[in-house]
Amino acid sequence: MTGTTETAYAKVNLALHVRRRRPDGYHDIESLFAFCEDGDGLTARRRDDGAILLRIEGPFTEGLEAGEGNLVVRAARALQAATGAGWGADLLLTKNVPVASGIGGGSADAAAALRLLDRLWETRLGEEQLIALGDPLGSDVPACVASRTLVGTGRGDALRFVAGDDLAGMPILLVNPGAAVATGPVFGAWDGVDRGALNAVDWRAGRNDLADPAMRLAPMIGAVLDALAALPGIDVARMSGSGATCFALFAGERARDEAQAVIRAAHPDWWTMASRLR
Ligand code: C5P
Question: Which residues are the active-site ones (predicted)?
Fold first, then answer.
């Protein structure tokens, strides 16, 4: 489909500290978010009848519904409601990255829809208002609207932008063992122990506090982390979000590409994506 396009940049939590369980069922976190240059693709063509029609293609469409419950459609409806825009859209979502995998998925898709339709419909809300519109759609949607390096606190939706110059362009390898992990149960399995604040500058010394609970639910994650840790030329290896996708950062693209070849050869059934941080 031809039209206006946007990338739903894959999200990576370089560190994710869980601080406390809240009375509303959510958890207060402190997380350094970064974004890959690649992710799902979204294409839109404007309709004048107000209809929002979504089609989904690509390697990870299984189990997804394209109706009003889809986060992309909900994002479009939220933008219509907020602006009174009478436009609609034909949307094509290309699912390149696995769903329920800790790297944004539906949140990044919803955020891409907000950015894309704000352009297509010329509603010109701009980033700050799109972030506010995205907040009710999910804890990660505000960060995904921005899609640049930031620290998220609260549910992950209170954003503080940080300089990402040292991260931009950094080669990254994403690896998922094919286990879909829902976010709620992973937070639910967190042991409730506050292991301390995140220092965003010294994030390499930080942690992902959801790795242990996620590994209890999906033990395969441990195998991924072990495989990444054994690679030569690796900077950091860690799980992203609530898993199961793990990432490794490298000093150079060659080390990353060699690492991808090693992982693919040893685990042909695992999903991998070589990218760079943006
Ligand atoms: O916000 P979102 O709908 O993506 O969150 C999905 C689930 O993950 C929530 O219902 C909640 O159980 C859990 N969650 C949490 N604390 C957060 C974010 C999500 O407990 N900061």
Answer: 11, 140
| 12 labeled part of a ligand binding site | no
103 labelled as ligand-binding?
A: yes
Do 19 and 156 have their domain in common? yes
The residues annotated with a catalytic role in the active site are: 11, 140
pLDDT of residue 48: 98
CATH of the domain at 44: 3.30.230.10
The interface pTM score, or ipTM, of the predicted complex is 0.99
Kindly report the pTM of this predicted structure.
0.98
Q: How far apart are the first and last CA of the chain?
A: 26
Q: Which SS3 state, helix, strand or coil, does residue 235 take?
A: strand
By alpha-carbon position, which residue is closest to atom 10 of ligand 1?
184
Contact 218, 243 (CB under 8 A): yes
Q: Is 16 within 8 Å of 54 (Cβ atoms)?
A: no
Q: Which of 95, 126, 161 is the last residue in one of the domains?
A: 161
Report how many domains make up the chain: 2
Residues 55 and 191 in one domain: no
Instruction: Compute the distance between CA of residue 87 and CA of residue 44 in angstroms, rounded to an integer.
Output: 12
Q: What is the domain range of residue 50?
A: 4-161
